[in-house]
Amino acid sequence: MADIHARGDVSEAAVSSGASRRRDPPDQRLARAIIRPLVRTRVTPNHLTTVRLALGLGACAAYATGGVHWFMIGSVLFLLSTLMDHADGELARLSGKTSRIGHVYDLFADITVQVLLFVAIGVGLMNAGHGTIMLVLGLIAGGSISALFMVCQTLESRIGGKQAGLPRPGGFDMEDALYLVAPITWIGWLQFLLIAAAVAAPLFLLWLLWHHRRVIFARAV
Fold first, then answer.
1. Which residue in 103, 122, 131, 155 has the fewest CB atoms around it within 10 Å?
2. Is 0.85 topped by the overall pTM?
């Protein structure tokens, strides 16, 4: 991409890249439009990752507090955090400010927020009077998501490419399901979300391990 722009020609690769961007999910295109004014500034992708992490941790704290008011605040913060998850990557691509440290930091922010979210929801629901079982479900969901994250990283490193080996129903990434957290919170179905996550995450983990067992359990050469 860098030498295409440097030469100023319209090559087949450039056209292909433009078509690929038009096929990107709506949230990724929205993030790209939002951060475009930041491309020639001193703002770095790591700054945006820090904002995403702060919003996500704020969402977890709000959910863990419990109660309708804090659940609503948590849902808005988490929605913003999820959108910001694309912003740092888009800024890195558009500005050329990519780094190995930034990639690792982004992965750390992702796994921290996503795992803690479901644990926090379990704590919050328990504090709201739904019983200790909600904490147990939150720990199951959070632990399964942590394991899924490690399996997905193994697949990406061995197969190559983001979301490698994962199904993409309707062209959406699996992580896009996180956008449902906010509306489900708003309609008061948070406990059902947690139950579904505690059941679906372990089952999906088992399916992924079985479906890609030859890749995941292959001995490193």
1. 131
2. no
Res 170 pLDDT > 90: no
- Angle 116-85-15 (CA atoms, 0-180°, nearest 5)? 150
In angstroms, the Cα distances linking 219 to 153, 163, 166, 213, 216 are: 16, 21, 21, 11, 9
Higher pLDDT pick, 1 / 147:
147
Domain count, the chain: 1
- What domain range includes position 175? 2-216
The reply to whether 210 falls in a domain is yes
Residue ranges of the alpha helices (H) in the chain? 2-7, 12-22, 26-35, 45-65, 68-95, 100-125, 133-159, 181-186, 190-211, 213-216
- The answer to whether residue 221 is domain-embedded is no
Residue 199 lies in a domain: yes
pLDDT, one tens digit per residue, over 67-87 is 999 999 999 999 999 988 889
Residues 100 and 111: their CA atoms lie apart, in Å, by: 17
Question: Tokens at residue 129, please?
Answer: 């009077």
Mean confidence (pLDDT) of the chain: 83
